[in-house]
Design goal:
- The protein has 227 residues and is of the alpha/beta class.
- The chain has helices at 44-51, 77-83, 99-109, 115-128, 144-156, 174-189, 201-206, and strands at residues 6-15, 18-28, 33-37, 59-64, 67-68, 84-87, 162-166, 193-197, 210-215, 218-222.
- The protein has one domain (6-222): 3-Layer(aba) Sandwich (Rossmann fold), CATH 3.40.50.
- Strands 6-7-8-3-9-10 form a six-stranded mixed beta sheet, with helices on both faces. Strands 2-1-4-5 form a four-stranded antiparallel beta sheet, covered by helices on one side.
């Protein structure tokens, strides 16, 4: 049995002093594609933030890509994030530089040195999201869907063991959402594990997969009806 990539046991998630989610028990294995759903304000973002070290895990146990969330030190957070790919709703691309330079910036920041290896890696991830020809453009020259593809490419740069996608289709129209979802599905088929927070139920119907729901301070698995 392989070890889960993410496991929370009896965890409580706090935003400051207020309890957001209690008694969280979640397990995600390598290769899974898992949705995290729930109304606005039910704790999806706090849950995600705890996983990438933005909020501390105060109570319970949590392990993610071999890091112990309970005992996570400030200095460990960059190393944790290197093993995670995080995709946000608002792309977070640097507007003053080209797509290639956006991606090179991340590689430099995470310790890559060899220029040739870096440009090869940038080309590889852009090819994966079908944006190979767009590297010389600036973010404002791309559509929302294209920018989100670039954000996914950026998340893939360091071969993450787990991709956390926080409402990746939140700012996109339905057709573009489907295109971005297809990219995520392909990446998952190639072996990347994905946890995706979303409120887009149409995607869940179109691409059914294991689903966790935040509701009334709890997270539980939703059993999807077949047929």
């Amino acid at each position: 049995m392989s070890k889960p990539i993410l496991q929370l046991k009896d965890a409580s998630i706090f935003q400051g002093d207020s309890l957001v989610l209690s008694n969280v028990n979640v397990k995600i294995n390598k290769g899974d594609f898992v949705y995290l759903i729930g109304k606005t304000g039910t704790g999806k973002s706090s849950f995600m933030k705890t996983l990438y070290g933005d909020l501390p895990l105060i109570k319970g146990e949590g392990h993610i890509v071999d890091f112990d969330l309970k005992n996570l030190k400030e200095k460990d957070i960059p190393f944790l994030r290197r093993k995670l790919g995080v995709v946000f709703q608002d792309f977070k691309l640097l507007t003053d530089r080209t797509i290639n330079d956006n991606l090179l910036f991340v590689l430099k920041a995470t310790g890559w040195k060899d220029k040739k290896e870096m440009s090869t890696r940038v080309e590889e991830v852009l090819t994966k999201v079908d944006m190979k020809t767009k590297g010389f453009k600036y973010p404002h020259e791309l559509s929302g869907g294209e920018q989100q593809r670039i954000a996914i490419a950026r998340a893939l740069l360091n071969n993450p063991e787990l991709i956390l996608a926080d409402e990746p289709t939140g700012n996109l129209d339905p057709q573009t959402s489907v295109e971005v979802m297809e990219v995520l599905q392909d990446i998952n088929k190639n072996g990347n594990t994905i946890l995706m927070a979303t409120h887009d139920y149409a995607l869940l119907l179109k691409y059914p997969s294991k689903t966790l729901k935040c509701d009334e301070n709890e997270v539980y698995e939703v059993v999807q009806r077949k047929g």
